[in-house]
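Need tokens for this chain, all 130 residues.
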Amino acid sequence: MKKIICLLLCLSFVLPSAAFAQEDDLIKNTQNDLILVGAAGVGGAILGLSTLSFVDKPSQHVSNIWTGAAIGVILGVIWVAYDSVQRNQDDLTSSVEFNSSERVAWHAENAGNLTLPEVQYGTQFWQMTF
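Here are the structure tokens for all 130 residues:
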């Protein structure tokens, strides 16, 4: 059973890259992020395991392993979120020439081009149109 689970886990990392070649960068980043969170969890579990040697009755402190793994996963998720924001920062600051005042001017010029559908709310007795 363990061999089947390991095989399926390995295939889940390999097959999506071949199936979605045009989205290779997104899938590669996602796989790296999952590996990083998993490695952080394993590292936290190892650190939790290492605390057992400092107590008199290690069997009563086995929860340190799970606590270390949970803290590792949480720190891994925080790191992945921070890294993702930093990776996408270039998209947000794509043009130096298009600063805030120019964006406001662009929105003022193009606000008339927006066509929003009319929405009606109400009952038999009253109607509101937005």
